[in-house]
Amino acid sequence: MSIKYKFSNSEGIYFVSFATVGWIDVFTRRVYRDLFLESLTYCSKEKGLRLHAWVIMSNHVHLIISCMEGQHLANIMRDLKKYSSYRILKEIREYPKESRKDWMLYLFGKAGEKNSNNKVFQFWQQDNHPIELDPQTNMFDTRINYLHDNPVEAGLVVKGSDYLYSSAIDYEDDKGLIEIDRLG
């Protein structure tokens, strides 16, 4: 794997995107979005994750993140994806109103069979494609705008701060769902 797709600078700020296997639309249900937010909050409080911006779409997540001194983003991302997938898959199996249960578990199971790193299921695609950002450059503003405009481009809302599962509201009036370490 190329160095451009690794967390090479332990003090860097990164734009990270990752998706469910097969781009399965898991996050159309609030219960699964909330479980992912719980995982983000845990990593922020217990693992040293610094969350600067985020959005959860129907089948993928975008984050702008860094970490506390002495921590490693690659380890935090591994733990975030491992734990969130465990919790979400458990909820899919147990959620009585999940009409897509058999279909989703079948697809996650087929993906898991293809990957020797998994015991049964694979929820997330393995890559994160971290891109290091400089908060002092236009690239940072471009990425944060892209992240916050994702729900607008998808036709879900008229303006980014109207989308509940995003930090765009925090950049407007600090009333988001989870605490962020706001930049800029």
TrEMBL record:
Residues 10-150 form the Transposase IS200-like domain. InterPro entries: RAYT_transposase (IPR052715), Transposase_17 (IPR002686), Transposase_17_sf (IPR036515). GO terms for molecular function: sequence-specific DNA binding; transposase activity. SMART domains: Y1_Tnp. One of its GO terms (biological process) is DNA transposition. It comes from the Bacteria. Pfam families: Y1_Tnp. NCBIfam families: REP_Tyr_transpos. This is Transposase.
